[in-house]
From TrEMBL:
Gene Ontology terms: cellular component: membrane protein complex; plasma membrane
Upper lineage: Bacteria, Bacillati, Actinomycetota, Actinomycetes, Kitasatosporales
GO molecular function: ATP binding; ATP hydrolysis activity; transmembrane transporter activity
Tagged with keyword 4Fe-4S: no
Entry keywords, A to Z: ATP-binding, Nucleotide-binding, Transport
Protein name: ABC transporter ATP-binding protein
Keyword ATP-binding: yes
SMART domains: AAA
One Pfam assignment: ABC_tran
PANTHER family noted in UniProt: ABC TRANSPORTER RELATED (PTHR24220:SF685), IMPORT ATP-BINDING PROTEIN (PTHR24220)
Cited InterPro entries: AAA+_ATPase (IPR003593), ABC_transporter-like_ATP-bd (IPR003439), ABC_transporter-like_CS (IPR017871), ABC_transpr_LolD-like (IPR015854), MacB-like_ATP-bd (IPR017911), P-loop_NTPase (IPR027417)
UniProt-listed SUPFAM superfamilies: P-loop containing nucleoside triphosphate hydrolases
Stored PROSITE patterns: ABC_TRANSPORTER_1 (PS00211), ABC_TRANSPORTER_2 (PS50893)
UniProt domain ABC transporter: residue ranges: 12-249
Amino acid sequence: MTTLDVVRGTAARVADAVKIYGVGGTEVRALDHVTVEFPAGRFTAIMGPSGSGKSTLMHCAAGLDTLTAGSAWIGDAELGSLNDRRLTLLRRERIGFVFQAFNLVPTLTVRENITLPLDLAGAAPDQAWLESLIEVVGLGDRLQHRPSELSGGQQQRVAVARALAGRPQVVFADEPTGNLDSRTGTEVLGLLRRAVDEMGQAVVMVTHDPTAAGFADEALFLADGRLVDRMERPTAASVLDRMKAFERRRS
Ligand SMILES: Nc1ncnc2c1ncn2[C@@H]1O[C@H](COP(=O)(O)OP(=O)(O)OP(=O)(O)O)[C@@H](O)[C@H]1O
Ligand SMILES: [Mg+2]
C-alpha cells in the first residue's frame, strides 16, 4: 500500500448536523444544519467567533456529544447507530484527542502517558512506530520525566504523541495552542503538520489563531452554528483578512 492509498477517503464527516442545547426559552441552536467532510491526509482548521459552535462541532464529530438531528460518521461508522460500549471502543481505537489543557496524567512518565490509550485498550504498541513518533516529537531524552518537569510546549507535544500513538483514523484538537506562547505553539503546530504530511494523518483543529490556521490545508469558518465560509491553503494573513471582513459585516 502506498501513502496515497492510506490518505484517500473520508476520515470523519457530519451531514446536516443540528445541535440544540436546552429546551423552551433557554434553547440554544449550537449547530444549524452543518455538512462537512474531514478527508484523510488533510489538516482542517475550524474557526469562528466565540460561541459559533466550533467545540460543539468537534465534540459531535468525535462522538463526545450527540447530535439533535443529522448524522456524524467516523469512516464508515455512523455514530448515532452505535451503543455506548461500541462508541467508547470506536473513540479509543479510531480517534485521537488533544485538548487545550494538556490532560496528561501527572503520576505517569512521558513514555507511560504516550502509551496510555494503547495500554487502556490492551493493545501492544507498534514499537517502531512509537520510536519514530518519539523522535518526531523530540522528547527522546525526557521519556522518564513526569509532566510537571516539562514546559507547556513539551507537555502538549506529549499529548500530540499520545493522540498519534494508536494511528487513529482522525485526530481532533480543540485549541491545542491556546495555553502556549507563540514559540511553543509553533512546535506543536509543526508536529501536527508533520503527522499529516509524513503519516497521512487526518487532523481537525479548532483555533482562534490565524497563525495556527496557517498550518492547515483548509480553514472552515462557523458563525452562529452555520458553516459560512471555507478557504483552501489558508495563510495567517488571508485568514486575518477574512476574520476582519466578518467583523465588519457583523457590526
Ligand atoms: N452544555 C451546553 N449547554 C447549553 N449551551 C451550550 C452548551 N455547550 C455550548 N453551549 C452553547 O452553544 C453555543 C456554541 O458553543 P461552543 O462551545 O460550540 O462554541 P465555540 O465556538 O467553541 O466557542 P469558544 O470559541 O468560546 O470556545 C454557545 O452559544 C454556547 O453557549
Ligand atoms: Mg470552544
